Amino acid sequence: MSIASRSRIIFDHIEDLDPKKAIKVLAVSKIQPIEAIIEAYHLGYRHFAESYIQEAVQKITQLSHLDDICWHFIGPIQSNKTRQIAAHFDWVQSVDRVKILQRLCEQRKQTQPPLNVLIQVNISEEGSKSGVLVKDLGELAEFAMSLPRLKLRGLMCIPQKQVKDLQPAFAKMFELYRYFQKTYPEWDTLSMGMSSDYLEAIKQGSNMIRIGTNLFGSRIKKT
């Protein structure tokens, strides 16, 4: 099946849920060839997500002539990768600690617009998963909002894969998002939902979904 055909299915499903709701579809292009990104671009996609910094920088450089692409980093963030992330990306969705926020702010050039940031929440409280715990979210959000070279836009989550019913986790995330919007009304993004669960995420309030396999097809495993 072509990328165009898969794209039509995704948007048909979204429209069937709520034709009036604005959902931003983030094309997860990690481990996909440049040709696939260009094809998605010509279908109208402008937001692309990467997780591996070296691969991502190569793609961003090769596609620099497409100056309206918006690049999102969605992978775990190591301290030694923050300089490249700050230099090359428009959004970072996987921030979960003070040190990373500080480094991204310090390393974002004054000539660049503020870096859009989402805080990743460990909503399932998995010991091995990245993300801030709910109890620590308020303190981290307050710190992020104080940094001049960053623009905190909202929250992101990756619920526990082994759980069949993700509705409670997504609903809890939406409650958190709405709660913090009372303090930070400029927040406008709740990123949750991937290829296997984006419809349930939208039902529970997501306004940004991260779609890889359902758009591009199965990925070749990274060696």
Description:
With 223 residues, the protein is α/β, with parallel strands linked by helices. It is built from nine helices and eight strands. The model has no long low-confidence stretch (mean pLDDT 93).
Which range does the strand content fall in?
Answer: 15-25%
Largest sheet, in brief, is:
8 strands, parallel
Radius of gyration, CA atoms, in whole angstroms:
17 Å
Average pLDDT metric: 93
Low-pLDDT stretches:
none
Molecular shape: globular
Keywords:
223 residues, alpha/beta, eight-stranded parallel β-sheet, 9 helices, 40% helix, 18% strand
Short précis:
The chain is of the alpha/beta class and 223 residues long.
Topology:
Blueprint: H1 3-17, E1 24-28, H2 34-42, E2 47-50, H3 53-62, E3 70-73, H4 82-88, E4 91-95, H5 98-107, E5 115-121, H6 134-145, E6 150-157, H7 167-183, E7 189-191, H8 198-203, E8 208-211, H9 213-216
Parallel strand pairs: 1-2, 1-8, 2-3, 3-4, 4-5, 5-6, 6-7
